Structures are given as structure tokens and as C-alpha cells.
Amino acid sequence: MLIAPSEDQAIFAETTERFLVEQAPPDTLRHLRDDQAGFDRDYWRRGAELGWTSLLVDESHGGGTISGAGVVDLSLVAYEFGHHAAPGPLLATNVVAAALSEAGAAQADVLAALLSGECVATWCAPRFGERPGEWRTDVAVESDGDGVVLRGTARPVEYAAQADHFLVSGRDGDGLTQLLVPASAAGVSVEAMATVDLSRRFGAVTFDGVSIAAEGLVGARGQAAPDAERLMRYALSILNAEAVGCMQSAFDMTVEWSFNRYSFGRPLASYQALKHRFADMMTWLEGGHAISDVACAAVQANADNADELTSAAKAFIGHYGAELIHDCVQLHGGIGVTFEHDLHLYLRRLTVNRSLAGTPPEHLRRIAGLLDVRNEVAA
Amino acid sequence: MLIAPSEDQAIFAETTERFLVEQAPPDTLRHLRDDQAGFDRDYWRRGAELGWTSLLVDESHGGGTISGAGVVDLSLVAYEFGHHAAPGPLLATNVVAAALSEAGAAQADVLAALLSGECVATWCAPRFGERPGEWRTDVAVESDGDGVVLRGTARPVEYAAQADHFLVSGRDGDGLTQLLVPASAAGVSVEAMATVDLSRRFGAVTFDGVSIAAEGLVGARGQAAPDAERLMRYALSILNAEAVGCMQSAFDMTVEWSFNRYSFGRPLASYQALKHRFADMMTWLEGGHAISDVACAAVQANADNADELTSAAKAFIGHYGAELIHDCVQLHGGIGVTFEHDLHLYLRRLTVNRSLAGTPPEHLRRIAGLLDVRNEVAA
Amino acid sequence: MSALAAAEDRGTEEMEELESFRLRARAYIRANLRPMTMEELRLDYSRNDEEAELAGIAHERELQRGLFDAGLAGICFPEAYGGQGLTMAHQKVFNEEIVGHDYPRRIQVPTFSPCAAVILEFGTHEQKLRHIPAILRGDELWMQFLSEPSGGSDVAGALTTAVRDGEQWVLNGSKVWTTGAWWSDWGLCLARTNWDVPKHRGLTVFMLPIHQPNVEVHRIEMLNGSREFCQEFLTDVVVPDTDRVGEVDDGWTVGTRWMFHERMLFNSPYVTEPVGITHGSMDAGLVATVAREAGLLDDTATQERIGEARMLELVGDALSKRISESIATGTLSDQAAALVRLFKGTAQLRVNTLVFEAAGSAGAAWSGDGPSARAALNFIMRQGGAIGGGTLEMARNVISERVLAMPRERRLDKDVPFRDVPRGRPNTS
Amino acid sequence: MSALAAAEDRGTEEMEELESFRLRARAYIRANLRPMTMEELRLDYSRNDEEAELAGIAHERELQRGLFDAGLAGICFPEAYGGQGLTMAHQKVFNEEIVGHDYPRRIQVPTFSPCAAVILEFGTHEQKLRHIPAILRGDELWMQFLSEPSGGSDVAGALTTAVRDGEQWVLNGSKVWTTGAWWSDWGLCLARTNWDVPKHRGLTVFMLPIHQPNVEVHRIEMLNGSREFCQEFLTDVVVPDTDRVGEVDDGWTVGTRWMFHERMLFNSPYVTEPVGITHGSMDAGLVATVAREAGLLDDTATQERIGEARMLELVGDALSKRISESIATGTLSDQAAALVRLFKGTAQLRVNTLVFEAAGSAGAAWSGDGPSARAALNFIMRQGGAIGGGTLEMARNVISERVLAMPRERRLDKDVPFRDVPRGRPNTS
How confident is the model at residue D170 (pLDDT cuts 50, 70, 90)? Predict the structure, then answer.
């Protein structure tokens, strides 16, 4: 998280944190395992009132930021989400709201409902292709009279069974097309998928010849590759900030534990082998904070190196974050691998974030690809 | 090294060790940096008298083993070579001698000279191909009257500039052909290459239309792929055992250092963070011994899993051996990265062995390839 | 009395020849124990099918009873207590013959070793007569009441307290990490009987039935959903003094041997262990399976992961063999077993990580119950194998201090009454 | 006197405005210092071209003299000692303007900081008058005579001894890891003046000329062939008491600040440091260069290696910035610099390994002097960056003990006369 948030940002983050501490304590999270939706609609509406859904939406469309830097503000919320392993479609809703806002408040009614928290939408995102700028998707868009028809399956889609709308980035000839598809449209079906996170839900969304009128288009046909790039940056910014929140929680719990837990008459914190591991963990933690913040700032500024930095953040936090929390588990001993302990809440969240929107190895290759492109441009 | 060598094996290993301690102490090794050949011919002849060159050669061709298991006996010599970072063409000579012996004492005079240490030969080895059983080489063999002609360059070739003969495994149509080429043959040239080892020498050997009569063939034309497989197993067995010797030397020196060196009034060996690293190092060391021995035994027995085990040994020892010696350097502090210290002698030897005949990543892929082949056979 | 001593007692002239024993064992096994692959023999606790587990236990009791009746149970236990009075060599023959067949898997450890082994070594004649034959018949399944929630790696720091009351003792406290205490019969329990002497000098060992109102067994859910482990709460559990094992306050003498038998694990002469079986296999092959599902099999990075997992498995096996032989030949002390523990524990972590990496995006969410599910659950449970059975940190301590003879860590629990040993952060508020 | 205090002394009304300073600096730089890329500015000690190095040093002395004459040397040093008496903000402006130009690179550290910084803080008026202007003119280049062969990470454990002899001191001992002592003029030397008090209470700091018969400078060859470091042997070196810095036996008061200035390194107000320059760059780009040579660029495993190296570089830069800001804003103590040290040291190791892996078989033997040669030499020298400038182990101690406030390691060198501190394994023969 930011070293020096503005006063408004600090208040904003604190308000969210207070809300989450009260609404989503660990025991509640454990119970959400058996809840089909994974979150409560009223909880989500109240979060929206706190500003969770407006940060990537232009003021003229009903949105608004805290500091003028919406991505950075959103990363503060995401950090708290990770810090408390909080439930709710933060990523899904914000990415779709951003897409609608950036397309000039396409589907203004849906956007308004997303902003108020009345309605939930999610993104059927494409996957990274071989080279930077290339995308893969298993959903195809074809012309059908004035409108289009969709065929194929997107997976995994966050909160697929809970979403009222899907933003689909589908293959359309050589390009991508973005559409908003109501969950109620004929031919749409969702099959639930399993995950290790207790509160998040995923599904495979199948479009079996789904007809969508031209009004359903979000932007021009075949031109959505840059949109996908931008939405992916938002998604990665949220995933990264969340994961850093998880790292911080696990680290803090374990430092505390190391002072309280005695073995052979001494606190764990007095054993040099463990002290040195805490030192390593702290560098990973601070490295995670640092690269997440730098990457969010670059996304906000639409900087040239925004992709490289988000990928570096995703790969670093995914790998070292998991190593950090696993080592926290190790230092807790047996209790750390039990369901009744809280540590795994953060491990679960981080584990899923690690594998969403490109695993660490995929992002490492993406960085190599970006360097390659840069060298070609330079040559 | 073997946990329970036979009495004869123990005496054999000890004799070699005594000889090396006397003939190749660290100061001598440091001076060899400036010696063009990297070893002394007389030293090598005396080593041959100790039995260094006979172990892979059939008794009927003048060879002989200690225990009946020549590969295992040779691994004892190789271990001592690594243990003392000893100079001399151990790998090169033994592999060529094995090839000549297995081809029915082809070139009996050369074989005899190799056995006595009068003459040195080396292998222009092929590299691993995409899949198990496939080979790559940049030397091509073509028919030329009754004989053949060679074109291309082999690199890196151990002791290329010092060798009197080259055993070449060259591409011949779809297969490989093995030939023995005198260093003096017209069209042969050697360009020296650089390396980090102080005593070993490497070169690139170019065959610029070198004509070789049919008698130069070692085995039938185009049929040498299985020979290459076998010779590569010998080469890997030697490289692995040597590298384990390096690990043992570095580990022993560093354990000793940790008891002797005091910091803040306590020996390094009393610091838990360091103790735990010694524990890790010891598992790698013992793991290295274990897999090297198991692999040598499998090569000796021509077992089905000999390739898988040698590759596992090569990858494990290459990676963890380097990590082990590097950590030994770290525990020595500044003095460990100076030329006047002895530690780097073992680091240099191991580093070169690690990268010869397939790097650890290449061997990992080879293991995957072998598993794949096995699964295909099973399916 | 050691297995060897038992055999010598009997006199070698009357002892069954190895070959005749082999034929007898083979005949019984082929006639009575159905063929099973290694894969089928592997225990999978993650299913959580309570009924199936109870049926499995009942089946194993029957198998054990069959062996007992055939004169094949307790090969290295003395005949006086229902065993066969044979040698480790006979047990090894049996271990060879049992390969590929069903056998009572769950009740080898900890019932035969360390529990029965400890009773055999420290129990009174009466205690042995009462329990060893019952154990060998499959009538009594035992658990170790050893670890405690407060204890971590420090088992001698037991807080469970036994207070003497005439000819009986009253126990209070909690034990944890017992596998399947809910279907076991007896617990071997380490308890503190004296708080006014240093840690190791105030412990005593007791035997107690698990199924009694004053013992509450709670099943613990692990991160992969497994509920194999239990925690027990002991409230005023009454144990007659005749169920004490070893002397009062001398429990650590028993404990030291107990730990030794625990280290021996499947190498114990009291344990049947099919040759070649692997415990907690590393599942290196899962990397390729999962990568195939994810469509990543062709990339070289995945191939390196597949190769690395297999390499670790092969080195682990080779190391295990080397260290066993080194211990057997006396080249290394039995403490060197910690090298295998550390290597395999670390390798297992790494393999679980490689599998998860190979799973690609399926690590986030998956359909069905296949390899991807296992990849993800094994990943979040990754440290389980680095904690259970002694943490890797303890293994590193053992290797550096016991094998390499480096200076021991400073302990603040020596030479002071146990009640004065710091057991938690002082209240700073 | 701190840089800030110096500035305040002078009174802000007479101080040069930042913008006018910027223009003056820019004008001088453009007119006098030739353009140089970051790559050209990077010092490469592995060449071992003695003549070129001496020429470089002579050139830097000239550059420094030019700056001095132009009123641009010692921006934060007091005017009384030849400096400009300006602020850290002025130094930052200078650091911005100097980007892309030649400047006296080698003599920033350790001459200006920590050496001149320590003299400024603890020297007498006479000492400062004698040395600071000479330093700012480029006439005196200084080295730290701090580490000792016996000392490792424990600099306060110095064995170099100074014995008082009337108005002078006689020094004997050995110092090591001085960069370029063979072309330097003066050494700032920590020596033991009292063996009968605890370690930190018997040290004193001295200044001494390096080029004198009683100081023998030996150049050390490193594993990559570099001979940048020296060891010095001091035999009966006579130092007048007037060249003592700070009080007798109070050298650790000086030493503590000395260490502080050393931690500040290139963030010191006394050091010119072009904005954006990287020290000991990780050379992440070398992975791709080497892989291209080896023909391995297309495989995904190599791509992961390229990406990993770049990732570590980017995170290192981000972390460095974050920690600097955290220290500047007081969120973290200056000890948190150890986080950057640890991260970058570890990352550098890893990058060197990745480069070597990408080199494939060229790691065994190579032709020519290109990237493959660098890959191999950097690999065998891999730990250099994890040792020099404070080991990573010390960084881990600092982070856990000073930043996380975990209990300090037990030290056997406290509260006992230094002569009684164990300094090696007792003779057991």
C-alpha cells in the first residue's frame, strides 16, 4: 500500500477496512464456504455506498475518485479486500463499469445499477496470446442481421452464476469485440467451477448461439483489443493489490505469533534460523508493496511501461506471495494447516489471484515478449 | 562415493588420492592456469600405471577392473579427481578407450598407447537431440572412395589441443558414424576455447575435408547412435562422480571453517541460521552421493533406467552442487571469492562439469522425454 | 527385550528356517489376501468417507486376526506374548512376500510401533500379557497421546498433568495430531507428574482407553478437507497405577526409546511394510498429467518442471536407500534419518509447487474432481508434509547438532523447575 | 556540523537560490564535462588495465579540481573548509544536472563519504582545515581502513593495535577490502587502543598516509580476475596524536556515525550521484543476450528466465525507491536500508544464475571475450555481491533485530575485556 496516502485516501481506506472488519470477520468467511453466492447483496450495496464501484467511472457518468487517480484509489480498496480476504465482486464489477464508462456510458442504466451496487456484472475475459497485444478467447462473435450472435465458452469467469450481466470480449474475425450480454439472454448457461477461495465463485459461461442486438455492443466491432489491454491492466492492478493485502495479513499474524509462541523456553522470534526467514519474508512483502504501487501508478498514468510493471508485479507477488504465506504456515506448525485457523483465508485468496489472469510463469514470458518488442522497435 | 567399497576398491581409491594429494596440491593447480597443456604427460603416465585408463577396457584388450564393475571403479577415480580438482584427461581418455575396446580393439596400437598413458585421445561428442535417442552434431561424414571425408566443427572438445587422436561421432545420413582421427591428419585444426577450470583445456576442432581411410572407422557406418548413448553414459558417470567429489571438498572445508571461525565471540557453527544451511547442504551432498552411485551402478548393469538415473544425477548434482559450493563461498565471506583461497578450485571444476554434456535444464527435459517415451510404450 | 534377544532366547535350533517361513507366508498370503496394486494400497484420507473408513478398519482387524491365527502375526514379538519369536530377517521375508497383496495397513503404525514396541520394552509382564496378544489379534488399536497444542516440536514440554490419588492417577489436558483416534481403542499417553523438577524429569507414561466419557475426541479439518487427525480433551480421566508404563517421573527414559521407535517408523522389526511401497509418494507424475490437461505439455518450461519433479523423486529414493544402509552399517547414527526427512519434505513441497505451476489457470478454478483439483488442494496444503512427522526445522536442528556435532541451541528450559520455564510472552500490558 | 546546520549558519538570505544554482551548474557542466552514457559511466574493474586506471584517477582529480575552482565542489560542505555551504536540495539539483556527463565517479565514495563526512563531524578545526579543502580540490583521495582479515562482519572486533608512545602512536596490523588503496592517498583507520575493556570501548580512529614504507599494499585477485581490492599490512606505522580523530578509546562513537554514513552511501548529501544511475546493475538484459548466442531464445523456459531477471530488476528498483521514501518520511528507520541490500543481493545472485543457465553449453567453454565469458565469470563470482558491502547474513540480522525488533543474538563479546573474548577454536590437541 501507499507509503504516503493523502488524507482523503487514508480516510477512504480506513472506512472500508472498518466496514470489512465488522462485516466479514474470519468466522463469517469460513461460513461463506457453504453459501452459494459467496456474498450478500446488501453487503455489496453498502460497499457501493462507500465508493467501491465508482472509482474507474467518469464523473460525468456518475462515477468519481478520491484523489483523481481512480486506479490508485481502487488499489486501496483492493488491498483491504486482500487484507481481510473480503467477499464480493470487486474486480468483476469495477472492470465492467470501467468498460461501460470508457465506451461513453454505453448501457447507462446498467452502469448506474453497477454503481449503486444493485446489479453485478462480470467480465468474460480473453487470455494472453503468444505475443504482447495478441489475445485468445473461446467465444466467437458473428454477424446476425443488424446484431451479432455469440458462440463458445468462457472460463473461468468470476461470479458467473451471480452476475446479472456479462461483458464478453469475443473473437470477431481478426479482432476482438466487446458486448454486454444479460445473464437472462436465451442460450446463456453457467456451469459452476470449484476453487480454493471460500467466498469467491467461478463458473464456465457457455454462449450457445446467443443473439445480441447492436445496442449490446460496447465499442466498435473488431476494435476491442486495446480495451482488453486496458481492462486487463485494471484487473491485474486489483489482483495485485489484493494479494499484497493477503501477504501483509499473513506476515503480521506470524510476526505476532513468533513473539508469543515459546519453544524450549524461548520465543520463536529468538531463533536465528527463523529470524532470517522473517527477514527474507519482509523483503518479499515490501517488494510486493513497492511493485504493486509502482504498477498501479503506471496504469493510472497510462505509462509506456504499464504492461511490463503489472506483469512484473503479478509474477513477483504471485510467486513470492505464495512462498511468504506458505512459510507463515510452516512457522505456525500444525495449527497453520487446519481449517479453524485464520491463516489459510489469505493463502486461499492469494492462491486464486496468483493463477487468475495469467500465472507467474505466463507473466514472466509476457515480460520477455515485451522486452523483445521493445528491442525490435529499437533495432 | 560408495558407502561400502570392497577392500580392493578402497585401496585403489586411496592410492589415487595419495598420488593426487602429492602431485596436484592447490598451489600446483593455481599455477596450472599458466600452463598451456594443463597437465604433465609424465604425471598422466604415472596415473595410467595406477589404473586410471584401463577400467572400461576389456581384459582381452589389455584393460581390467578392480571389482569387475569398471564403471563403478572408474567413478572412484573420478570422485578423487573432483575431490582434489585434479588435472588430466580422465574423461576424454577413458571414453575413447571404451569405444575402441567395445569395437573389438579397433586400432589396437592406439588403445595400447591410451592404456599406458603414452597417448591422449578425446571425444568429439554429439549433443542431445530433441527426443531421447536423437543426436545433434556439426560434423558430417561422407563417402570418399573406400574411405570417408569429414567436414564441420565440434565444440567444446576437452583437451582438444593436447589430444593425439579424436574419436569423432559424426552425422552420416540419418545415423551416426564413429571414427578415430589422428590429430595430425591433414585438414584438422584446433582453436583454443576459454573456460573457468584452471587445469582443463577445451578447443573447437574443425575438420576441413579430412580424409580418413576405412580402417579409421570404429564400428559400422551409420550405426553409432547406440555407441554414442553408451559413451555418453560413461562421460556422465565420470562428470557426476567428479562433481560429487568437489561438493564433498567444499563442504568439509566449510564445516571445518565454521568451527574455527569466530564472530562476536562465538564460532560460526553456533549460529542457527548457518546451522540450518549446513543441514540443507548436507542433504544435497548426500543426495549427490546417492544418485551418482545409483546411476553408475545402473550404467554398469546396462539397466533400463540408466539414462533416466544419469540425467537425474547430472541435473541434481549440477544444480545443487553449484548451490552448495556457492553457499560455502558465502559462509567463508570475502576470502572465499579470492584467488588465493582453495575453495574456488572445486567451484570451477563443478561449474564446468555442470555445463558439459548437457546443462541441468537440458537433462531435466531429457528426463521428461524419457518419461514420455515410457508412457507411449506403456500406452 | 529386543527382537534379536527374543530370537536368541528361543535358541536358534528350534527357529523356523527362513525358506520354510517364506513358503508358509507365501501360501497363506496367496490363499487369503487379495491382490492389490501399490496405488490401491495407498491410503487417501482426503475422501472423508466415514463409513468406508470404519469398514476399512473392521476389515483390517479381520486381516490381522487371520494372520494371528495362521501364526504370522507379530513376527518379531516374543512367543510368550502371542508373537512368533522370529527375527528381523523373517520380517523382511514377509515384507517381500506381502508385496502386491492386501494387508492391515493402518494398524502397523502407531499400533505395532511405537506403541506395542514401547509396551514390550517397558511394560510389566502383566501389562504385556494383557495388551500385546490383543494387539496382535487385531483387537486393540493404539494411538500416541504425545503432541500437545501448546507443544509444537517440544514433546517433552507436555502440559497434560497426572495427579496421584492413592492407587490411581487423574489426568487432565489435551493431546493432538492423533490419526484416527475416533476409531482407535487405547492411547499411550505422556503426562507431567511433577512440575517442580526440570522438564525431562517430571514426566510419566500411562495407558488409557480412548472410548470413555472423560475423553472427548474432536476431529480436525485440514486445509485439503482431510479429517484424518484428532484432538483429545482429557477431563479428570482416571488411570489405575497398574496402567502406568515405566517409573513415576521417569517418563523421558520411556520417551527417548519411544522417539527412537518413532524414528524407525517403517523400518521397525515390528512393522509389516511391503518392499518398494512408498509413503506419501511425491506424485511427480502428476506434473505431466496436470500439464496435459492444461495443454502445456509441449513447452520446454513445463518439461523442465516434469523433469525436476521426477529428479527429486529419484534422488529422494536413492538418498533414502543410502542413508538406511549407512545407518545399518553404522557409518552414520540413526539421527541421520533426519537427512531423508529433510530432503523428502523439501522435495515434496517443491513437487506440489511444480504440479500447481503446471496446472496453469486451472489453479484458480476447475471443473470436476480430477488432477486439477488435487493440484490446487495439494498446493494450499503444501506445508502439511513439512510439519507433520516432525517439522523440517527440527530435522535441520538434528542434522546440524547431532550429525554434524555443531553447538546446540541455547535452551532456557534446562536445570530449572518446569513450572518456572517461560511458556509464553510475558504480559506487557 | 550537518549539511543542514551549515546552511542555516550562513543564513538563508544570502544563500544561492536553487534555480540560479541550477543554471550555474548546468552552464559549467555543459561547457566542461563531456557527455557520457550510463553505460560508459559504469566502472568495470574486471579489465585490470593498470595504466588506464591510473589515467582515470588522474583525470578525475582534474575534474574535481575544475569543480572546485568553479565553486561547485563540496556543495554541502561548509564554506570555511572550501565547500559551498549549500543544502541537500542543491546537491539534488546538481545530481539532476550532471546526468549524462562525465564526473569524478571513483572519488565520491569513500572519499567524500564516509571519510570526509567523518572528519567533518569529529575532526578538530585544524584537521578539517588541512584535509577537507584538499579533498574537495581532488588532491587527497581517501580509503577506509576498517575491515580486517580476522573480522568478517564484526568491524568493531578490530585487532589492528595502536600503542601510545608519547605524542605519537605506533600501529600494527592488517586491513582489507579497500578499493584501490594503491592509488589512494590517505586512510581513515580504526584501531584498538585498549584490550582490557569490552570490545566497543577500546577503539580509536586515526588518519594516516598510505604511501609510506611501513604500509605495504597488496592487491587481491578475485575469482573474476578483478584486482580492485587491496589488503594493507601496517608495520610500526607512526601516527602523531594530532592525527587522531575523536577521543582515545572512544572510537566506536566515531565508528557508529561512520557506519551511518556508510549506510547512506550514495544518498549522502556529500556525494554526487547522477539521478537514475544504477550501481552494480543486475544486468538482467544479459540473459537474453546470452540466450541468443546459445540459440535458446525461442524456448519458453528461457523466456521465463529472461522475464524473471527483468522482474527482479524492476522490483528491486521499486523497492529501493519505496524504502528510501519510507526512511525519508520517517515511516521506517534508516536500518530498513538492509531490506534493499538483502533484496538486491539475493536478486543479483539469481540473475547471475539465470544468465549462466541461459548460456547453455557455453558455460563450460567459450570463444572470445563476449557475453558468454561474462556469464561464466559472473557465475563463479556469484557470491561477491552477497558478501561485499556487508553480507546478506548481516542484513538479515539487521532486519529481524532492528526493524522487526526480534530478540538480539546472544553475544559472547559483551561486558568482558576484549582480550578475553574467544577469537578462535580452542586448541583441542
Answer: very high
Q: Best interface-test mutation with B: which of A276, A277, A278, A331 has the largest number of B CBs within 10 A?
A: A276
Q: What is the DSSP track for C12-25?
A: GGGSPPHHHHHHHH
- What cell does D93 get? 539539483
How many Cα atoms occupy the beta-carbon half-sphere of D407 within 13 Å? 17
* Percent composition of chain A: helix, strand, coil (DSSP 3-state, to 5): 55, 20, 25
Contact A156, A358 (CB under 8 A): no
Which residue type does B106 have? A
Amino acid D265: pLDDT: 73
**Largest CA-CA distance found in chain C, in angstroms, rounded:** 73
* pLDDT per position as a tens digit, D252-268: 999 999 998 888 777 78
A283 close to D (CB below 8 A):
yes
Grid cell in block for residue B88: 588430466
Least Cα distance to C233 among C202, C189, C183 occurs for: C189
**If you measure CA to CA, which chain B residue comes closest to D367?**
B193
* Closest CB to C361 among A273, A351, A355: A355
Range with the poorest average pLDDT among A280-289, C357-366, D260-269: D260-269
Interface of A with B in 246-305 (CB under 8 A): 271-273, 275-276
Which amino acid does the sequence have at D160? Answer: T
Q: Cell numbers of B39, please?
A: 597437465
Min Cα distance C334 → chain B (Å) is: 15
Name the amino acid, one letter, at B216.
G
Residue of chain C nearest D305, judged by CA positions:
C301
For strand B135-136 and strand B127-128, is the pairing parallel, antiparallel, or unpaired? antiparallel
- Split at pLDDT 50, 70, 90, the class of D7 is very low
For C68-72, C304-308, D408-412, which range has the lowest pLDDT when averaged over its residues?
D408-412
Q: Does C302 touch chain D (CB under 8 A)?
A: yes
Q: Which three cell numbers stand for residue B199?
A: 587445469
pTM of the full predicted structure?
Answer: 0.95
Side chain identity at D14, as an amino acid letter?
E
Mean pLDDT of C304-314: 96
Q: Which helix (H) or strand (E) holds D98?
A: none
Separation of alpha carbons B321 and B292, rounded Å? 12
State the chains in contact with D (3 or more Cβ–Cβ pairs under 8 Å): A, B, C
Q: Tell me if A278 and D399 make a contact (CB, 8 A cut-off).
A: yes
CB within 8 Å: B293 and C322: yes
Judged by phi (left if over 0) then psi (alpha if -120 to 50, else beta), residue C415 lies in left
pLDDT of the residue at D308: 97
D331–A3 CB contact, under 8 Å: yes
Number of CB atoms found within 10 A of residue D414's CB = 12
C301 touching D (Cβ < 8 Å):
yes
Interface test with A, best of D314, D326, D393, D408 (most A CBs within 10 A): D314
Contact D307 A315 (CB under 8 A): yes
ipTM over 0.85: yes
Measured CA to CA in angstroms, residue D27 lies from D17, D61, D83 at distances of 16, 20, 19
